[in-house]
Design goal:
450 residues, 16 helices, globular
Amino acid sequence: MSNKATKDLTVGSPMKLILGFAVPMLLGMLFQQFYNVVDTMIVGRFLGKYALAGVGSTGSINFMIIGFCMGVAGGFSIPIAQTFGAKDFNAMRKFFAHAIVLCSVFAIVMTVFVSIFCRKILVAMNTPDEVLEYAYNYIIIIFIGIPVIYMYNLLSGVLRAVGDSKHPVVFLVIASFINIALDLIFILGLNMGVSGAALATLISQLISGILCLGFIAKNVDILHLGKRDFDIEHMYVIKLLNMGLPMGLQYSITAIGSVVLQVAVNGQGADIVAAVTTAGKVNMFFVCPFDALGSTMSTYGGQNVGAGKLDRLDKGLKASGILGCAYSVIAFVVLYFGGRYFSMLFMSAKETVVLDYAHQMLIWNSLFYIPLAFVNIVRFLIQGMGFSMLAILAGVCEMIARTGAALFLVPMLGFTGICLASPLAWIFADLFLFPAFYRSRNKLKKIKVK
């Protein structure tokens, strides 16, 4: 049985395991952000600030729709991690097969729906007229590729569920270089504009998904599916939906606050939109370690709950918390002194107003990276433990905070109100997540005793 790629997170030092699992994931996320950065650099440098603002103005709606896809696929991988931890490989394969069927259905329905209403959504979001066409031409291609997004996120999530965080990284590295080459061909060579950037991203993600599929087929025997695995059973469908839908909705509900905030940002003019877009791109690069820790804790929690080793949950939380806090301090110092220079990767040095705003936003956000670290760590740990419904409530906390900032802080404080929106969202979420974790852990302990 060729399953060397799998990894058991239920035995050994939590700190070493979390580091060993998270570092490859971090490298993959950095490469993913790297080719996103290349997209943005080429758009900003060669197509201008209106094209950049157009792409940036789609960020919140992109997060709402694509985040739902990622959340659902990630939620579907949790029962796979739990059954892997319990060494129940027959049930694991049934969950995998059912997840493929459900993702296919979700992908078809969502692609049709969002493609039809895409332009209307952008108009309703008060997207500035001068950037509307750029926004539409970019996001419609991303939305048409929803099936590809489901494919990649499910397959990479399944590999992580069985302990393999390394090979998805290799596939992302390959895809990142392909994405860069396609950017140059589509945007500079074929003059496809922002559509070329979207198409390059979509094709590169398709290649990553195909590589994941090929690797599973060739190297991970315990994930090889038979015809009987696809015989639909309600028990598996219900369990997957109970895990996947809350995680998907958590992303979307969180994004509602971002959409409301984006409307407020759009009303501030193209310079502010460009500044928020620029700061967002830099910020996404710097928060990759938090995303890697979060995804690690989802697998860590799932495998250890499946194995019945509940005492390791607190140890994992402590270890990941130490890592997250240490990195937060370093990131703040780097962005405080160098944030403006990072922003210049996406915007010409002549755009001094945009760069000033972007640097200000980076300082505010990085000042609150420690709360963000725990949002990712605790939320994903809870999800891995099997309490995905709590993710929705955490998302509601973030939505309320961002919506409140958009409705009250932005009118009072202007751009500073925009800068404070995400930090408030992270603090609100943490106030809910920590008590939720301890309640969930205690509930599992009571079940185990019985």
